[in-house]
Design brief:
Number of strands: 23
Strand content: 15-25%
Oligomer: single chain
Radius of gyration: 22 Å
Helix content: 25-40%
Structural class: alpha+beta
Length: 509
């Protein structure tokens, strides 16, 4: 009898396979990083073949570590880095180019043209999204326009598109031998191509971006009792296990945090930082720079959310390690940052890919301001952690403005939440308690929940709520004066980062 649900958690820097029991506890897990490719400034790519190889590796490894047979798994869910764009040949299964990562800004000029043509409101009204380099629709158009022969292949049905979820599910369910070419409503809502109300690809938007509909996956609910497909005996899971859950990583974290009621919110700390607020059964347009998106789709209906997306948070810590050599590991930031009382008067705005919510400034770039001879390595490390918290405060302020909801607490998840100092900083800068659950990797848990619901391992949302438990609550310790003075300094620093890249004159063809 099946006793477990499992999830592929394919993130920006690596892939994890996790297996959970019926109480939502981790039974087995394995993780592998993949290569980050930077062909030129502003470009970020991944090798989709490498990602699939790592996925096979972590699935086999976690099953072996846990001593778990495929027959014991009720279903597999997939969660993924959203907006990262993959195009591949359906006959050979080979990617036709590197995957273009969500952080990539090569579509900046294309997006500027769309805005100059007065199309911002069209995309906002239909998709809930601003026109920005972040989303996969412009990335796909760029590939079709720049990869020789790709458009012809797409129009002939010889090229498939998907975010990473689609790529992984297609391979899991057979690849060239009948793999399911599908996505779910959460991932589709991040393409700038799906209509939020019809939950289908929008013909007008496809025409604007010159994207052939036949290369797009079929859109399904996030939890699919009818399954997307099953694993194959010659794949990494030796047996026919249903693949029946699919959510973009941030929506999966919301689902794993059991934020099923309107007004509940979570924040995930990963490569970027993403706060989602459940807004219920109707999409809520944002006037404050947030995204209106799908929270999750169940057979009984669709739930929407407001989202604040921050491009660079954990990636800034990675930059300290890999580019500057200021730390040896992310875990080392806690002790280094605690060695000083404050950031020494500096602020670090890590706008490496421009600024996302609530500013949506493609022309911003990273800055460190307030430097004096007093500043040390420790101050820079602390300022990096503070930047994560200040950017989250920016998003919280926008959510208050859009929803009218005053959050009484913030649920948190993701790898960085193990840093107690960071979580205390977050509570201090927000002025609300920060609640860390017993299972930190709620992204994988959410995808596993979606799969388990589809196969009856769990009876419904109430049973999932009963699984959620608190590890620690971080209460604010700063006074109001200190909090507001520090935040005012942050806002001043953000202004210094904006408009750094000068826009070239738009050339009409």
């Amino acid at each position: 009898m099946a006793r477990y649900a499992a999830a592929v958690d394919q993130g920006t820097t690596g892939t994890r396979f996790m297996i959970f029991d019926q109480e939502g506890r981790v039974v087995a897990s394995m993780y592998e990083e993949h290569t980050q490719i930077y062909p030129q400034p502003g470009w970020v790519e991944h090798d989709a073949e490498e990602i699939w190889a790592k996925t096979r590796q972590v699935i086999a490894g976690a099953l072996a570590r846990g001593g778990i047979r495929p027959a014991e798994i009720a279903g597999i869910g997939v969660t993924n880095q959203r907006e990262t764009t993959v195009v591949w040949d359906p006959t050979t299964g080979e990617p036709l180019c590197n995957a273009v990562v969500w952080q990539d800004t090569r579509t900046r000029e294309l997006c500027q043209h769309l805005i100059a043509d007065g199309l911002e409101s069209t995309f906002r009204e239909k998709t809930g999204l601003p026109i920005a380099t972040y989303f996969s629709g412009p990335k796909l158009k760029w590939l079709l326009d720049h990869i020789p022969g790709l458009r012809e292949k797409a129009e002939a049905g010889e090229a498939l598109f998907g975010n990473i979820d689609t790529w992984v599910i297609w391979n899991l369910t057979g690849g060239p031998q009948g793999g399911a070419h599908v996505t779910d409503v959460t991932n589709a809502s991040r393409t700038m191509l799906m209509n939020l109300r019809t939950l289908d690809w929008d013909d007008e938007l496809l025409e604007i971006l010159s994207i052939p509909r036949r290369m797009l996956p079929t859109i399904h609910p996030s939890s699919a009792p009818g399954f997307y497909g099953t694993t194959r005996a010659d794949g990494p899971v030796d047996g026919a296990v249903p693949v029946c859950g699919d959510l973009g990583d941030q929506q999966a974290a919301l689902f794993g945090q059991t934020c099923y009621d309107a007004g509940e919110a979570k924040n995930t700390y990963g490569t970027g930082c993403f706060m989602l607020l459940n807004t219920g059964s109707e999409p809520v347009p944002s006037k404050s720079g947030l995204l209106t998106t799908v929270a999750y789709g169940l057979p009984e209906g669709t739930t929407y959310a407001l989202e604040g997306s921050i491009a660079i948070t954990g990636a800034a810590v990675q930059w300290l390690r890999d580019n500057l050599g200021l730390i040896q590991s992310a875990a080392g930031t806690e002790g280094v940052a605690q060695s000083v009382e404050d950031a020494g008067g500096i602020y670090f705005v890590p706008a490496f890919s421009g600024l996302f919510a609530p500013y949506w400034d493609m022309d911003a770039r990273g800055v460190i301001v307030g430097l004096t001879r007093y500043v040390t390595r420790a101050h820079i490390v602390r300022a990096t952690l503070e930047a994560i918290c200040y950017q989250t405060r920016d998003v919280l302020e926008a959510m208050r403005a859009d929803s009218g909801i005053e959050l009484t607490a913030l649920k948190v998840d993701g790898g960085a939440t193990v840093n107690d100092f960071l979580m205390q900083l977050q509570a201090d800068i927000l002025g609300v308690p920060v609640v860390r659950p017993t299972v930190h990797e709620t992204t994988a848990l959410g995808a596993a929940y979606a799969a388990g619901l589809a196969t009856g391992l769990w009876s419904g949302l109430d049973e999932l709520r009963a699984n959620w438990g608190v590890d620690r609550v971080f209460e604010p310790q700063w006074g109001e004066d200190r909090r507001e003075e520090a935040y005012a300094g942050w806002k001043k620093a953000v202004e210094r980062s904006r408009g750094w890249v000068e826009r070239p004159a738009l050339v009409r063809g």
